[in-house]
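FIELD: query
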Amino acid sequence: MRYINPILLVEDLDRSRIFYEELLGQRMIVDLGGFMYYSGEFALRSRDSWRTVEKCGLWPQEGLWNCLEMYFEEADYDGFLTRLRAWKDLRLIHGPTYMVGRRLIRFYDPDGHIIIVGENMRGVIERYLDQGLSMEEISARTHYPLEFIAGILKRAT
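FIELD: result
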């Protein structure tokens, strides 16, 4: 068996499309009319395209939306924060905060799914190296093993 991707159920596909494409920079690969697959390896499915399943009572109950977190990384984190601040109707969970050595921010998408955007790990490692931290100190701050950190730096070259 092979895992394919998560599918986010949304009330308004056009609203969600704008959110994921314009704010989060995701690229749609295919639009099947009610189902959109994105290059970030997730899909959006509209409530209207789920009519058969909904008849079985399987549409999520009110308040159960945010049981999923979508995690994205951004190389230009400060640029992203500028775009985010300008986004109309943003429902913020928490502002930028440091967690395991990198900045993270959490907010809701238009349907209440939790979105996390963190700094690109390569940028975090390079910032710490520029500050004079050793690989061991970076590992301690980020909670990533030395081999993982070395692998990120190796792939970057």
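FIELD: remark
The beta strands are 7-10, 28-31, 35-38, 42-46, 69-74, 91-99, 102-108, 114-119.
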